[in-house]
Amino acid sequence: MSRPSRTHFAPLLRVIHWAMALLILAMLFIGVAMVATTGPAYVRLLALHRPLGIGILALALLRLVIRLATGAPPLPADLPAPQQLAAKGSHVLLYAAMIGMPLIGWGMLSAGGYRVALSPSLSLPAILPHDLMLYWLLRQAHTVIGVAFFLLILLHLAAALMHGLIRRDGVLQSMTFGKTDRKETDRR
Predict the structure, then answer these.
(1) How far apart, in whole angstroms, are the C-alpha atoms of residue 21 and residue 14?
(2) CA angle (150 as vertex; 159, 165 as ends), nearest 5
């Protein structure tokens, strides 16, 4: 007799997932607004962008630890191998972006000689030496990876909707707080 497999991610992981989804969307829109804005609004957006990025970094690291400790529900048994590979690969890329983007931003600011202020009295230490060429390279990387991250999020959202609305295979529900429509034994 086989043991039924789990159908949901760990509850704390689900809470962090949805909190991070809101924070990352806010961060992306703040980033776009920063590019399109000058004057006092830019300074206010920048004051939000830096601590929000560090918050996302902390949550991503916590989420990674929980994910490694608790695992994930299996994908549906009838999901073709290329789609399973794409799902697993996209999750690796999402974690890399969630951790890499804030670190690149922090490194970029360090190289530019700027401080990462979490509040008026609390700043993070520099993680790279002051180097304007390095600042320029990291700024380019931050922009390119930011756009790639946004595209990856769109693909992730499209895949989630495909699983939830078309396949109805329980994959989307594994990250929500409801019950799945699919039997637990339909997963491998």
Answers:
(1) 11
(2) 20
Nearest to 50 by CA among 3, 142, 117: 117
Beta-strand ranges (E) seen in the chain are 116-119, 122-124
Rama region for 180: left / alpha / beta (φ>0; ψ in -120 to 50; rest): beta
What distance in Å separates the CA atoms of residue 39 and residue 73, rounded to the nearest whole number?
Answer: 48
Q: How far is CA 49 from CA 44, 82, 125, in A?
A: 9, 37, 17
Question: Are the C-beta atoms of residues 106 and 56 closer than 8 Å to each other?
Answer: no
Per the rule left: phi > 0, alpha: psi between -120 and 50, beta: everything else, 168 is left
Q: Per residue in 30-75, pLDDT tens?
A: 988 988 888 888 889 988 999 999 999 999 999 999 999 999 999 9
DSSP H helices in the chain: 11-36, 40-70, 81-112, 132-161
Angle between the 11-36 and 132-161 helix axes, to the nearest 10 degrees? 130
Within 13 A of 63's CA, how many CA atoms are on the CB side? 23
Per the CB < 8 A criterion, the answer to whether 99 and 64 are in contact is: yes
Distant-in-sequence, close-in-space partners of 80: CB < 8 Å, separation ≥ 6? none
Q: How many whole angstroms separate alpha carbon 30 and alpha carbon 115?
A: 19
80-105 pLDDT tens trace: 999 999 999 999 999 999 999 999 99
